[in-house]
């Protein structure tokens, strides 16, 4: 199958690995000509680049919406894929911003082989907002406040990963028992409509959370129940909101994080594996060729 992947950069949605797994040709958003029969477009920027191509004589095209940048431009993206009849894959947390039918998709994650023993004399918790600008978006200040309360009850070691290298973040997740992705849903201190007028962004399970699950770290996030059936079962991530967050972490510390971490790792090893994701993303092509 003569397949191409149009992507902003090679690390996006693990595009490099998908290219290897699918024997596909990778194209950047600056490409003027794409000489393949079938094309997978990854992300809003790549879709905009595709819209400007003069030659669009492909046998099949599909697009993957994979991060919150889509939310800022959801009206244009929805209009374009609807007008051009382009099949859509999307991360389930983008559901409220999609008005077109879509197939849920999580990205494949490839990590270096690393094992760091988790401490046995304390509970290790980490949170990774990344850039300082993302701290308010992910509810970092509220997470910090609640964890400090819990540190009065339990021997908790807590780290906020900001300005850390990716390798350092991976090491910290590997040695942590619990990873907190974000605290957005029902958080009164965050402007939850920042992405699109009256639509409320409720949170999600992004690449950082999936990495933590791969590393055997019990992952907690805020979002609606992800709709993934009948394509694959939903991830057994711990779903919470601002008002239940303290209770959920307290409960995990007492009786649950180890078993949940095992369930999450088993799920991500299967449904975010290169083989599964590759087959899942190209299913529409097999049906149309």
What does this protein structure show overall?
The strands form two sheets. A six-stranded parallel sheet has the order 2-1-3-4-5-6, with helices on both faces. Strands 8-7-9-10-11 form a five-stranded parallel sheet, sandwiched between helices. It has two domains: 3-105 and 274-288, Rossmann fold (3-Layer(aba) Sandwich); 123-271, 3-Layer(aba) Sandwich (Rossmann fold). Helix 1 (15-22) crosses helix 11 (274-281). It contains twelve helices and eleven strands. The mean pLDDT is 88. Strand 3, helix 2 and strand 4 form a beta-alpha-beta unit. It starts with a strand and ends with a helix. It has 289 residues and is an alpha/beta fold. It is 36% helix and 17% strand.
For the terminal residues, how far apart are their CA atoms? 9 Å
Widest sheet, order of strands: 2-1-3-4-5-6
Order of helices and strands: EHEEHEHHEEEHHEHEHEEHHHH
Which residues form runs of ≥5 with pLDDT under 50?
none
Number of strands: 11
What is Rg? 20 Å
Supply the CATH class of the largest domain: Alpha Beta
Largest sheet properties: 6 strands, parallel
A few lines on this structure:
By secondary structure, this protein is α/β, with parallel strands linked by helices. It is 36% helix and 17% strand.
Write the layout of secondary structure elements.
Elements: E1 3-6, H1 15-22, E2 25-27, E3 38-42, H2 44-51, E4 60-65, H3 69-72, H4 74-83, E5 88-90, E6 103-104, E7 123-130, H5 134-137, H6 140-150, E8 156-162, H7 166-175, E9 178-180, H8 207-214, E10 218-222, E11 238-240, H9 245-255, H10 257-271, H11 274-281, H12 283-288
Parallel strand pairs: 1-2, 1-3, 3-4, 4-5, 5-6, 7-8, 7-9, 9-10, 10-11
